Amino acid sequence: MLLFFIIALLRFNDIFGKIIETVRVETDIGAIIGRKKLDDNGFEYISFMGVPYAEPPVGNLRFKPPKPVKGYTEFEAFKPGEQCCQAAIVKSETPVFTGSEDCLFLYIHTKNIDLSNPKPVMLFLHGGAFEYGGGGAYVPTPLIKEDVVGVSINYRLGALGFITFGNDLAPGNLALRDQIEALKWVKRHIHNFGGDPNKITLFGQSAGGVSTNALVMSPKTRGMISNAIMMSGTMMMLRTTFKGSQPQRFARLLAKGLGCSEERFDAAMLECIQKFPFKDILNLTRTSFTFTTEGSNFPRGAWIPSDDSYSSDPVLPLETVLAMKNGYFAKIPIMTGTVLFDGGVLIFKNNFEEFFDDFGTSAIPFSDSQEGTRDDLIDSKVALRFYNGGIYNMLEALNETIDLITDVYFLSPDQKIAEYASQYVPVYNYLYSYKGLASFLPMYMLNSGEEYGPEAIQAFRHVSPVHGDEQGRLFDLMISSNEQDHEMSKVMVKYFTNFVKYWNPSPEGQESFNMTKWEEYSTEKKYLVIDKQCEMKKGIAEQRMRFMQRMVWDRRENKAERNIEMRNYMKQVQEKMIIKDNYVHK
């Protein structure tokens, strides 16, 4: 199997496809020149790479919302732009940092440009725990063969993408604000590339799925998205809230580490941290890929989206449960799903009892506290006993332990989003179970820092598919594949592009490849198993989901209900005060 981590390196060292000729596109802010190419299978397509969609967020624009790009002068979109600043996932005695702050680029791929017959647009948001990755690695040739325009983007990562002061000086959620700026660019200019600005599907995997969910909830994207696909990532997997986690404390830690004033979240503090090289900031704020504190200064999950009602221009004015449960989101069709062994992304020590005692509340979070309490640790141990009998040896209960991680982070949050959203809009849910030739698993094992022996390696061979493996069916990731993989790709691409075109993955008259009819989620909790033979089922992992409901969702839903009751009460009080004030004034 192949380590998927080299995908980005390969893609950025080789401009993919044989060049045929250049293609010029005129926009209202200048000309962009791309290239027509041939892939290894003789498929001809047009590519525009590294197109700036915003001004470089450097200097006094660091930690600020993005500014739209001013214009182009014969911009040659021939090569990938830099990825956004990030720590490389490599073993090294000293940290290795890559990328640039001048990184807000997008990538456009299309089979052809026909302005008289615009194609639906698929805008992809990459994964990487909000700390790694870039849009240039994802070439959607399988998708664009079905007459869609594929777009992918870079957005700011880590501290540079999420530092907040809890005020308008540094409002936070900058990664989401970048994505919204890119969405605005696509809405305004994609018609010049043969895309339909009124048919934009937002889709993303892992952190990109979380982002997709966030943008669906954001009032700032109203009327811009026609439908959404969330792949192994939703906002529900983030347990923390702004009030619960107080993320502005991370800005104070950064300021202290750089020797800046940390007393007030003011202009002086901002100006000071803006002066330092990005590598100094990354070195101080990088987190651990596992949940230990070794080699890191901030907890894993420090740099994530959060509700930001403190801002005068919020991206997420409401907490996720309150928003989704009560219908405060874009009323568009939604596709959402997970991978059978998504939890394989977090491979721990063979014997992790000590690890679990120290970091169990971070690895298996049940409350909205980022610090973790004794009650959280007890809940985590109860969960471990429910799933694998309390066994601390990974190899004795490998699948059950991975099921626990899968459910906490991916499957259970995914099912709650499907449950909430299906009360208001059509929802199509899936479980990707196909075991392909290549997998991300070797990379996850490498990142665990564990030395695995033959017995462990043999056990892990059965853990497939894992988090991210489904991307090999939708994108040309330069990975090993066989004929069965290609057939699976055709089926999955057809489902996805049907959803993009018709708001239904298997509409009447569009069936092919003996495709199973994909039914809506509904109150029966229907989902499609995507495998060599696709089939519809009901009620995924019902006992496990019932356990998660009792352990996680009951308390979060009760808290959200209390919050909305308090909001309604305060609104009534304010209305009465206004009436009284008006009466007295008269």
Overview of the molecule:
- The protein is α/β, with parallel strands linked by helices and 586 residues long.
- Strands 1, 2, 3, 4, 7, 8, 9, 10, 11, 12, 13, 14 and 15 form a 13-stranded mixed β-sheet that branches. Strands 5-6 form a two-stranded antiparallel ribbon.
- Strand 10, helix 5 and strand 11 form a beta-alpha-beta unit.
- It has 18 helices and 15 strands.
- The protein is globular.
- Helix 12 crosses helix 13.
Task: Give a nutshell description of this structure.
Helices cover 36% and strands 15% of the residues. The protein is α/β, with parallel strands linked by helices and 586 residues long.
- Stretches where pLDDT is under 50 for at least 5 consecutive residues are 1-15, 289-293, 576-586
* SS field, number of helical segments: 18
Radius of gyration: 24 Å
Query: Which percent bin holds the helix content?
Result: 25-40%
How is the main sheet built? Answer: 13 strands, mixed
